[in-house]
Amino acid sequence: MPVEIRRTLTLVQTTHKEGWKEVAEPTTLVTAMAIIANPWFGRGHVEDMSPEIREQGPVLGKMLTEMLLTVTGDRLEGCGKASVVGMGGEIEHAQALTHTLWFGNQFREAINAKSYLAFTNTRGAAGTSMMIPLMDKDDGGRRSHYQTIHTTVPDAPADDEIIVALGASIGGHPNHRIGDRYTDLEEMGRDVDNPAGV
What we know:
Strand content: 25-35%
Low-confidence stretches: none
Number of strands: 7
Radius of gyration: 18 Å
Distance between the termini: 43 Å
Largest sheet: 7 strands, mixed
Shape: globular
Helix content: 10-25%
């Protein structure tokens, strides 16, 4: 079943001042979103979701990646993903199209990312808040690039829709000063070569 794209949106926000201090290098956050028809809507419990995942995932991943890169070019540093399914769908429908390499690898390979894509998935009515967590595309322990895009589409998703989104940053979060995971790991006597370590 080919993907039915109803609308696409690109959101660009640049922070020049955070709190009480100017940002030395303004941070730009970019969101690329596609509002699509939910391919499983009205079909009851669908056990095998793989045909739609394999057909639609690459199309969405490539399109959203191109939308981001149109804005960031080769300056992209942080990345993440999110999805919101309308109230007529399941959380699994939102997750299906983003938690697959058919989708994510379109983005990761285009930007030569080494880290995984942080994510959120939820179900809600039109206007539901969507948060896209970001992390450095190459280094999961680099806290300067832990930031979150918070956005909403006032009239989506409809009951039979899914919003699929990719997020990106140019620069880290404004006025970063909380160090990184490696310092903590070293001070705690843990393995600094494993930034996911706790």
